[in-house]
């Protein structure tokens, strides 16, 4: 069976996911597209030679009988409205992060999905689908390094534009760690603190960069995440787990090792799209397969909500400098243990 997908938002990641669904992955085709800028949607249809209808209104796309599943890749503040509409229509929906721009918005989605009675939402957190993180989780689950005690992580980008603000280091950057580390440890955060080292001269005046986020989980694991978005040298994701009997480290992406000019070197990637290209393919293929099997298993609306609650606490901690509690309500049984 081929799954007929409708895509809302044909910007950078929307175009990339449309290419994926129509050219790379198995079992899906894009039959409908919408963007607030109609020309952008029409351009994607013609560039990718899609047999797809351009909708002027996202709600008409969602309710169309031609559309069996919805991809929401528009800008963040529009996600909640479209995901709620997909749930109301009883259609599976893959929503890019953030699920909603506030924890309250995420909770509205959790409540609507629980009321519907069946999982319909997958959030576009792709790191749990990355080969390296999966290998790391396998080591932790096997017990080879004992219980995890501490994590040392880094999220570094070469540089960011003028529109990037200090709180976006949490909502746009750290948000991926907030999701993947919960998944990796099978644990929830209980408190966060943010400290600011000496500011880099490469950061624009309005931006505090780098910053270090310190987190504690319910089981007592301590996590430090360095966010440094003007590091200049490349896009670099690090994660080292210190366990009771050993240390496990996220593998580096594979790269050719060179001996040249009296140096031994390997290249470092500079673009996040290249670093996680495999993970994006696997996450969307999993969504397509799960929809066809009638049971979603990827990052849930609850995961989107939990990440948003932790992000809110981090933003409060940026301002106060204090340790801020992360308070999650009890997880509805609907989302498993
Ligand atoms: P983008 O290039 O700005 O694309 C967003 C598109 O949505 C634009 O074409 C925009 O049109 C359109 N849009 C805005 N409001 C809309 C509405 N109400 N209805 C329909 N279309 C609307 O942004 P992007 O980089 O693709 O990011 C899109 C989302 O994906 C964001 O939430 C972002 O955080 C997420 N994302 C996730 C990852 C990841 O690693 N998982 C990576 C990149 C992006 P205009 O340009 O005319 O406003």
From TrEMBL:
Pfam families: GFO_IDH_MocA (PF01408), GFO_IDH_MocA_C (PF02894). It catalyses: myo-inositol + NAD(+) = scyllo-inosose + NADH + H(+). Residues 137-325 form the Gfo/Idh/MocA-like oxidoreductase C-terminal domain. Keywords: NAD, Oxidoreductase. This is Inositol 2-dehydrogenase. InterPro entries: Gfo-Idh-MocA_inositol_DH (IPR050424), Gfo/Idh/MocA-like_OxRdtase_C (IPR004104), Gfo/Idh/MocA-like_OxRdtase_N (IPR000683), MI/DCI_dehydrogenase (IPR023794), NAD(P)-bd_dom_sf (IPR036291). Belongs to the Gfo/Idh/MocA family. Homotetramer. Involved in the oxidation of myo-inositol (MI) to 2-keto-myo-inositol (2KMI or 2-inosose). It comes from the Bacteria. It is an enzyme of class 1 (oxidoreductase). The keyword Lyase does not apply. Its EC number is 1.1.1.18. Residues 3-125 form the Gfo/Idh/MocA-like oxidoreductase N-terminal domain.
């Amino acid at each position: 069976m081929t799954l007929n997908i409708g895509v809302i938002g044909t910007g950078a990641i929307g175009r990339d996911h449309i290419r994926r669904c129509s050219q790379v992955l198995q079992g899906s085709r894009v039959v409908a597209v919408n963007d607030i800028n109609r020309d952008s949607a029409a351009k994607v249809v013609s560039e990718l030679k899609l047999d797809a209808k351009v909708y002027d209104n996202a709600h008409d796309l969602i309710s169309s009988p031609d559309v069996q599943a919805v991809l929401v890749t528009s800008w963040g503040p529009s996600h909640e409205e479209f995901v709620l509409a997909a749930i109301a229509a009883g259609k599976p929906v893959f929503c890019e992060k953030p699920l909603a721009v506030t924890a309250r918005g995420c909770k509205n989605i959790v409540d609507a999905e629980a009321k519907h009675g069946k999982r319909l939402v997958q959030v576009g957190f792709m790191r749990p689908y990355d080969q390296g993180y999966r290998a790391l989780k396998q080591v932790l689950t096997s017990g080879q390094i004992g219980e995890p005690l501490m994590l040392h992580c880094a999220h570094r980008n070469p540089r960011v534009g003028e529109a990037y603000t200090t709180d976006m280091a949490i909502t746009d950057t750290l948000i991926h760690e907030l999701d993947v580390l919960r998944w990796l440890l099978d644990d929830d955060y209980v408190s966060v603190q943010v400290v600011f080292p000496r500011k880099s001269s490469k950061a624009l005046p309005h931006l505090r960069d780098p910053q270090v986020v310190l987190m504690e989980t319910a089981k007592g694991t301590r996590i430090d995440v360095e966010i440094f978005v003007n590091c200049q040298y490349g896009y670099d994701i690090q994660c080292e787990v210190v366990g009771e009997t050993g240390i496990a480290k996220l593998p580096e992406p594979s790269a050719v090792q060179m001996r040249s000019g009296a140096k031994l070197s390997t290249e470092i990637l500079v673009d996040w799209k290249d670093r996680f290209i495999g993970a994006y393919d696997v996450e969307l293929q999993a969504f397509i397969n799960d929809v066809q099997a009638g049971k979603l298993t990827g990052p849930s609306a609850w995961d989107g909500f939990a990440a948003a609650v932790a992000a809110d606490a981090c933003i409060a901690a940026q301002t106060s400098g204090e340790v801020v509690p992360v308070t999650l309500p009890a997880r509805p049984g609907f989302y498993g243990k």
